[in-house]
């Protein structure tokens, strides 16, 4: 592997080891309509969870940042599926709230690892700005 590429991978590893917490606060201005996401069909009771929430198999709604956080927030473990990751997801929030999101360093045999996090302000009660 070329020396400059190896250095780049080491730089990425340094970022992964030091960046353990990411937070997003959603702030809004006037305008926009709130949106809800229908419950997942065929996975237990149908629930109207907000787009900022994960729909548990039992119908409970938990904030998206509680998905795959190693804590059984749903009560039925449906927010902690095997081999889940908080990466490669789109996160929505609610107006005026701050969310913690924990990212763990991947195992050595999984490096290099790309983790894409998308924070979206969907308007209305979901805010217009991600800060």
TrEMBL record:
<protein>
    <submittedName>
        <fullName>Uncharacterized protein</fullName>
    </submittedName>
</protein>
<feature type="disulfide bond">
    <location>
        <begin position="49"/>
        <end position="61"/>
    </location>
</feature>
<keyword id="KW-1015">Disulfide bond</keyword>
<dbReference type="InterPro" id="IPR002172">
    <property type="entry name" value="LDrepeatLR_classA_rpt"/>
</dbReference>
<dbReference type="InterPro" id="IPR023415">
    <property type="entry name" value="LDLR_class-A_CS"/>
</dbReference>
<dbReference type="InterPro" id="IPR036055">
    <property type="entry name" value="LDL_receptor-like_sf"/>
</dbReference>
<feature type="disulfide bond">
    <location>
        <begin position="56"/>
        <end position="74"/>
    </location>
</feature>
<dbReference type="Pfam" id="PF00057">
    <property type="entry name" value="Ldl_recept_a"/>
</dbReference>
